[in-house]
């Protein structure tokens, strides 16, 4: 068993499925003392706790669009576990429609920004406050996207939201460096998560195969999986990246090279 995260207390939002769930499992394998899963998918979250063990993780219902719930999440974690070393702000959502600029539905944009931008900012804010108060040289990791480094033919609101995540990460890393707190992001290309499957109305593996031709890296194992993103998150959360901050780690099998 690895000890990259030995003794660390972590919160993972959106931890009940997809990249979040894979990261919860990776954190446990790498020795985290406890992982708090925060999500609105209560049944799935409880199943993850049962499969890993309540001695290693717990579940808290938290809607990141409600700042009071985020604040309570952080406070309860510190109260029960004495500290907070890692915040993986991962909870996110996707466009419900194609969302071109000309047909942009601003109400839908507000819905998406409430999760992807406002919710992300609330998680970084309250995690950082706790770390500063406890004098912890912590690590904050946010989920961005390869969409944060490009423009799109549609899904304008989603592209905009992920660009905003990079702005948050770069600003927070500059401001929090004086406290020894590192802030980074991970930018995945398409991964066959339940959210993608619902959006495309396809099974995860079928959805992944649609995007495989876009990658530059070919061969067995070159299809991106949630575990590949979780590996990157563990790296950014651990001392392996102790002098890395304000960085966006792209995990895309070479898509952005094209």
UniProtKB/TrEMBL annotation:
Gene3D superfamilies: NAD(P)-binding Rossmann-like Domain. Transmembrane segments: none annotated. Belongs to the short-chain dehydrogenases/reductases (SDR) family. This is Uncharacterized protein.
């Amino acid at each position: 068993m690895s000890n990259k995260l030995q003794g660390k207390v972590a919160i993972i939002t959106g931890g009940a499925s997809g990249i979040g769930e894979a990261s919860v499992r990776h954190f446990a394998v790498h020795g985290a003392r406890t992982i708090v899963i925060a999500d609105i998918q209560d049944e799935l979250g409880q199943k993850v706790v049962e499969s890993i063990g309540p001695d290693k993780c717990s579940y808290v219902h938290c809607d990141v669009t409600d700042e009071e719930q985020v604040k309570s999440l952080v406070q309860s974690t510190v109260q029960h576990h004495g500290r907070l070393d890692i915040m993986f702000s991962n909870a996110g959502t996707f466009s419900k429609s194609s969302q071109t600029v000309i047909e942009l539905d601003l109400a839908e944009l507000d819905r998406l920004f409430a999760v992807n931008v406002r919710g992300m900012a609330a998680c970084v804010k309250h995690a950082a406050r706790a770390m500063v108060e406890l004098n912890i040289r912590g690590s904050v990791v946010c989920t961005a996207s390869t969409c944060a480094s490009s423009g799109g033919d549609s899904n304008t609101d989603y592209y905009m939201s992920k660009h905003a995540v990079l702005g948050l990460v770069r600003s927070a890393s500059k401001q929090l460096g004086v406290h020894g707190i590192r802030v980074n992001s991970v930018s995945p290309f398409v991964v066959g998560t339940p959210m993608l499957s619902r959006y495309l109305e396809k099974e995860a593996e079928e959805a992944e195969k649609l995007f495989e031709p876009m990658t530059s890296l070919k061969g067995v194992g070159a299809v991106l999986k949630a575990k590949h993103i979780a590996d990157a998150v563990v790296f950014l959360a651990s001392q392996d990246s102790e002098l890395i901050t304000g960085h966006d780690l792209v995990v895309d099998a070479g898509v952005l090279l094209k």
